[in-house]
Design goal:
Layout: H1 25-32, H2 39-44, E1 49-52, E2 56-61, E3 68-74, E4 82-85, E5 98-102, E6 108-115, E7 120-124, E8 139-145, E9 162-167, E10 169-178, H3 179-182, H4 191-213, E11 217-219, E12 227-229, H5 233-236, E13 240-242, H6 258-268, E14 276-281, H7 283-296, E15 300-302, E16 310-315, E17 318-324, H8 327-330, E18 338-341, E19 346-351, E20 357-359, E21 369-382, E22 389-392
Parallel strand pairs: 1-19, 13-22, 14-17
Antiparallel strand pairs: 2-9, 3-4, 3-8, 4-7, 5-6, 5-8, 6-7, 10-21, 11-12, 14-18, 15-16, 16-17, 18-22, 19-21, 20-21
């Protein structure tokens, strides 16, 4: 039986309030066609949005580090108190009084000193235990600090956020009505209304495609009339599983098994972020998920999530909300793809004063007719790319 559910990152309870009045054409589109060609934009109309005063907008990404290091060289595995580490940014968290745990043996060590130039580490071995072996490629984890009574403060440790950016792209779609057509009675209704509706759908469809497949770029950036291209989700996400054998696939080309999918969900997808993912996928991926779900899940239809319908799969303590995206049928290759989004980590960005709007009377003075156009300058911001994922080339399940 269909159920209703809110989505993290969206305003309200999952239903449009009867008195909720859209304030622009983009929000109005969510009412007109939520399950149409631009469901992502329909949901974004009720999610976080932020204006920018420049077509290039930045955001800062930061997360707690893993604080792990790998042994590179050691002279005598059982007794040496000096060894070197593989060169890594994580090494900066190893300092005097840091406690290291060897994940291979459980041995605890107390750091006496670390030399950044050579990655040389001096430690007291086998804290609270017996003599163990420390070998090349053993992984060491920082397991806290241990300071003697009355000691001075230790070394200060900090790290900087990384800067990410995207561009607000200008989308324009217009329609033309001759003076004659404006005055003609049509049994299908006013021509202006029909053309206005179709053009808005086309406009939102263009934005939707750019948000999924656009490539970040600027052309003629040093001139007074640059062209900005927004980076789409599939080109901005770093967590990519390519079933063509490049990554994430062990069963064979273009195949992901049920065990591989389980591993992806538990070890990669939900390692960061909330416990719910929105999944926009092609029809072939939807078929694979139905095959997996028949024997182990009890999927239920989610209705009322701002008009966009989903199929929910409960996976351990996590939820996948699946929507077969219409445009994934239209773009060749996308039928074998799926995009997993943590919605609270998305933000719709638009240039101040240039969110979706209908600009009327764009025709020249001598034109016997009317030209109106929709204009939007916008882009999508991934606040962080860690909780999102992209599967492509998933043609079979073996």
């Amino acid at each position: 039986m269909p159920t209703t559910a809110g989505i993290q990152g969206l305003r309200g309870t999952g239903q449009f309030d009867i008195e909720h009045r859209p304030t622009n054409y983009r929000q109005g589109y969510a009412f007109m066609e939520p399950n149409g060609t631009a469901p992502l934009n329909a949901l974004l109309s009720m999610a976080a949005s932020e204006s920018t005063d420049d077509p290039k907008y930045n955001n800062f990404r930061d997360h707690l580090p893993d604080r792990v290091a790998t042994v590179a060289t050691i002279t005598t595995p059982a007794t040496s108190t000096t060894f070197t580490l593989d060169d890594s940014d994580e090494n900066k968290f190893i300092h005097e009084h840091a406690v290291l745990m060897n994940t291979a043996t459980g041995e605890m060590m107390l750091v006496s000193s670390y030399t950044d130039a050579t990655n040389t580490t001096v430690v007291t071995r086998n804290i609270g235990g017996t003599t163990l072996s420390l070998n090349v490629d053993d992984v060491l984890v920082v397991a806290g600090t241990a300071y003697p009574a009355g000691s001075d403060v230790g070394e200060s440790i900090t790290w900087d956020a990384t800067v990410s950016f995207n561009y607000a792209q200008t989308f324009r779609n217009n329609f033309f009505l001759t003076g004659e057509l404006e005055s003609t009675y049509l049994r299908t209704g006013p021509a202006a209304v029909e053309k206005q509706t179709k053009t808005l759908k086309l406009h939102m469809s263009d934005i939707e495609r750019a948000m999924f497949w656009g490539k970040k770029a600027v052309v003629n950036g040093t001139t007074a009339q640059p062209t900005w291209f927004t980076g789409g989700i599939t080109n901005e996400i770093t967590n990519i599983v390519d079933c063509a054998g490049v990554a994430g696939d062990t069963a064979g080309d273009n195949i992901m098994t049920e065990a591989e999918f389980d591993s992806f969900i538990m070890n990669d997808l939900f390692a960061w972020g909330s416990n719910t993912r929105l999944v926009f996928c092609g029809p072939k991926v939807a078929e694979h998920l139905h095959v997996f779900g028949k024997n182990r899940w009890s999927p239920d239809v989610i209705e009322g999530t701002y008009g966009v319908s989903f199929m929910r799969y409960k996976f351990a303590s996590y939820d996948l909300l699946i929507h077969t995206h219409p445009q994934f049928r239209q773009v060749p290759g996308a039928e074998y793809s799926a995009v997993f989004l943590d919605f609270p980590e998305l933000c719709y960005r638009y240039l101040e004063g240039r969110d979706t709007q209908l600009l009327e009377d764009r025709q020249g003075n001598g034109v016997d007719g009317v030209i109106d156009e929709y204009l939007t300058q916008c882009g999508l911001e991934l606040k962080t790319d860690l909780p999102h994922a992209y599967i492509k080339n998933w043609q079979a399940t073996a």
